[in-house]
Amino acid sequence: MFESYDPRQGKRLQIMDEAGNIDSSIKDVPLMNDSDILLAYKYMSKARVIDEWSVNLNRQGRLPTYPPGKGQEANSVGSLMAMDKDDWFVPAYRELGGMLYRGIPLSKLYQVWLGNEKGSHFEIEKYHTFPISVPIASQCLHAVGAAYANQYLKNNRVTICFVGDGGTSEGDFLEALNVAGTWNVPVIFYIQNNQWAISVPRNKQTRSATLAEKAFAFGFEGVQVDGNDVLGVFAATQMARDKALKNQGPTLIEGYTYRLGAHTTADDPTIYRKQEEVAQWLVKDPLLRLEKYLLKKNLIDESTINALKEDAKKEFLKEFEIAENAPPHTVEEIFAWQYKQIPEDMKEQMNILNIRLKGSM
Amino acid sequence: MKALTLVQAVNDALFVEMRVNPNIVVYGEDVGVEGGVFRATTGLQKEFGDKRCFDSPLAESAIVGTAVGMSVLGLKPVVELQFSGFAWPAFNQIISHVARFRNRTRGAMTSDIVIRMPYGGGIRALEHHSESMESIWAHIPGLKVVIPSNPYDAKGLLISAMRHPDPVIFMEPKRVYRSIKQEVPDDAYTIEIGKAKIVTEGKDITILSYGAQMKEATEATFQLKTKGISVELIDLRTISPIDKKTITNSVNKTGRFLVVHEGPQSYGIGGELVTTVIENCFTDLLAPPARMSSPDITPPLPRGERLYLISTNMIVNKVMELMNYRP
After folding, report:
1. Backbone angles phi, psi at A296, to 5 degrees
2. Residue A329 contacts B, CB cutoff 8 Å
3. Is B129 tagged catalytic?
4. In total, how many domains does chain B have?
């Protein structure tokens, strides 16, 4: 299906360029219409505002470690827009836009970053979304299992799984690709290649020219897409999804993108990368090109752009406050979810902890 | 009723439960056509098809990691790791995900899978085929660890594991896979996870063991009877969580306690149980509670293996020492 975009021949799918122009010569892929483009812009812009505010709140001491996704918004928004709402979404942890598109409340998402497990209570039927996965690439195997289950249960659902460029060096990533290919299950692996795994550049992860081409060794297609072009991301994902639904197996998509911010708020990227490199990517910003396009076509104006940002900020700060004001956990809460029922000897531990906290033991 | 070995009872449990629960899938290395290197899954693929019993690629992390995803979507994977010594590539999936999905998502999702693995020494095997590392699994919050010692328990406990809402590490004592046959009911039955079993009631000393070492503990119990010593023999059956009540009730009655198990002594099951006894039975104790386990060494290859396991004689001698203890 991706014959014209073989990464082994140096091809990378891009539909909208940095100037906001759509390549009209591309006919063989599904294109977003203008209302889709506007919708994508709204989610990406919202994610950007929230991301920048998260860093602010971290600086104010209100939010512990947070992994900014600035510059990468098109990847999770574009790909999730190409998926059905009942398809399964297996995130890593830098997919804020995709989470927003799924409709997961911000107050929930920020409970996670504020250190409250309740934030990961994603009702299955409502969101079809796995919780954020911290151990790198381990979630790729969950996605393959979810895809097997969907096939087994004849659910007609596709699973999309996210991983970073660093994650492609992990054994679990490679095992996941191998098993997915062997079982021929409906799964899409989406690599957010943001060029940096904390301080380690992409060329220190692998000698492969692209990450997408690794798919071919596992017996299925890989495609590299401009991860800052939401139209390209959408097209590649929708094609991969169609393929999966036709029982034509998995696809590996490499979103070629860039992390404009730090790995997390605890990281200082000036130690390992030059400002000139960042500057080269600033002009490729996924939001800027959409703004250029939408303004050019009179689909949006400056005041709407600003109003969207202002609304996003207000909504976020309100939702953040809800997450922030969640009461601290009780002893019962931290014991309650280890098992379906609290075992007897843990009930004893719980009682002892309660007594100790009262200071009488 | 039919007379089955332990490994046949495992196979029987899988058959019985797969017939009633269409969401059970069984996979692992060589479990399909071959029926497992120990034949625990013999015949399953033929009866249930290759979507329900199949050979996975040779990758333990993948076997467990995919099971996590399947279980979130409602399947009940019962996976086999060929030997417990080869479980470690899956360790990250087990400790980071299997054990945590319920807690991480506050009950929205669970990873209630069953991971079967043969464990323990005494079968003259190559390196990595003789470990008893149950204390490592037992140390991980969120897991349940179950070890049967005989065919009847193997079937009942495995059926319970397959109906259990929490993930279960099901360790099978391969040294006694075929050593005895026992009458096992044809139909399904369950044995409660989290409950130890008093095998023999007694009044002088409590001996606790589990898995393959139950063989020597049982023999010692008989020999001690001829010496006039009445042993209360307990089969732990569930390693985690611990059935403290059964153990402490017994020791409060007998006043003496000996735990016998394979595997390194330090930070082992024995240490945990002795502590439990000291904390709960201190004033009733007539002798120091004792543990007998393997030394803190790498399990020796067959040339040295007889030195690693606890023999019947060793248990008898230790019990005599405890009986003769005077403060």
Report:
1. -60, -40
2. no
3. yes
4. 2
